[in-house]
Amino acid sequence: MAEFNLPINSIVKPGKHFPAPEGAVNTRKFSIYRYDPDTGANPRVDTFDVDMDTCGPMVLDAIIKIKSELDASLSFRRSCREGICGSCAMNIDGVNGLACTTALADIDGDVAIYPLPHQPIIKDLVSDLTNFYAQYASIEPWIKTDTPAPPDRERLQSPADREKLDGSYECIMCACCSTSCPSYWWNSDRYLGPAALLASYRWIVDSRDDATGERLDEVEDPFKLYRCHTIMNCAQVCPKGLNPAKAIAETKKMLVERRV
User: Fold this and answer.
1) Of the CATH numbers 1.20.210.10, 3.30.70.1050, 1.10.1060.10, 3.40.50.2000, which one belongs to the domain with range 130-257?
2) Closest by alpha carbon to 83, among 58, 64, 50?
3) Predicted confidence band at 40 (pLDDT cuts at 50, 70, 90)?
C-alpha cells in the first residue's frame, strides 16, 4: 500500500541516514517518508537507527524518540496516545493504523512508516484530510427532529433501539478505513467513503432522529454510496474493530426495502 502515498509525478529517493547514539547495541531501523512541499524537492525516505533499550513499546514512542533525539524537523500528528483521538493514523509496515496502539513487537524486521495512502501531503507524515472532514460534515452528523426537546429530560429510546447504534458511534474519525479503500482512492471527490457512510448510518438508524428518509435520499447516489464494492479493507484496518462495509450494506438494503 505504501506506493499510494506518493504525490503525482514524484519519485521517492533514498534520503539521509541517522545512526543511533554511540554505544547503542540493541538498535532497529526505521524508514520514514519525508516530504516538504515548500522545498520543491521530491519525496525521500530517511532511515533512523533507534536505540530500542531506551524506547517505548509502541510505534509512536519510536517516532517521538526520533523527533526528540535524531531529527527535530520530522512532522507528524499525535495527541491522546490512547487510541481515542485518531490523530496518529498513518501507514505502518504497509497497513493503516494508529501509531500509538501499534506495538513494535508485532512488526518483523525494519519498520516502514508512511502517511495515510493517496492523500495530499502537508509535510512528512501529516496528510491533508480537508476533503475527508468535509464529507463527514456533509452527512450532517447531528440529531435532526421535528419536535422540540423535552424540557425536563433527555430524548429517550429503548435499550433495543440503543443497541442498534453499537458498532457505529465508536468511530474516532482517524481515516484509516477510507484511505485504505481503493474506491475512495479513485473517487474521493464523489464517493463519501467508509467513515462518512458509517457516520451516516449511525444517524439513519437512530430512533430519536426524524430525518431518516431525508438522510437516505441524500446518500442514494451512484457515487456517494454505490462505489463500495465490499473489498473489506475498511473493516480490516479499523483500530476500533468496526465494520463500515456492513453499515454500507445495511444502508443499501434500507434503500431497496423502502421501494417495495
Assistant:
1) 1.10.1060.10
2) 58
3) confident
What confidence category does residue 11 fall into, taking pLDDT thresholds of 50, 70 and 90? low
pLDDT of res. 259? 81
Q: Which residue type does 4 have?
A: F
User: What is the DSSP secondary structure assignment for residue 192, as one 8-state letter?
Assistant: -
pTM of the model: 0.91
- Say what the pLDDT of residue 9 is: 40
Contact 218, 162 (CB under 8 A): no
**What is the CATH topology of the domain spanning 2-127?**
Ubiquitin-like (UB roll) (3.10.20)
Q: Is residue 8 scored above 50 in pLDDT?
A: no
Note whether 45 and 126 are within 8 A (CB): no
- Distance in angstroms (rounded) separating the CA atoms of residues 5 and 94: 11
| Cα–Cα dist 239/59, whole Å | 14
Phi-psi region of 44 (alpha: psi -120 to 50; beta: other; left: phi over 0): beta
Q: Say if CB 41 and CB 136 are below 8 A apart.
A: no
- Report the SS3 class of residue 229: coil
Determine the pLDDT at residue 186. 94
Beta-carbon contacts of residue 6 (< 8 Å; ≥ 6 apart): 12, 43
- Rounded to whole angstroms, the Cα distance separating 143 from 205 reads 11
The amino acid at residue 234 is C
243, three cell numbers: 465494520
SS3 for 158? Answer: coil
Task: Report whether pLDDT(4) > 80.
Answer: no
Tens digits of per-residue pLDDT, 179-212?
999 999 999 999 999 999 999 999 999 999 999 9
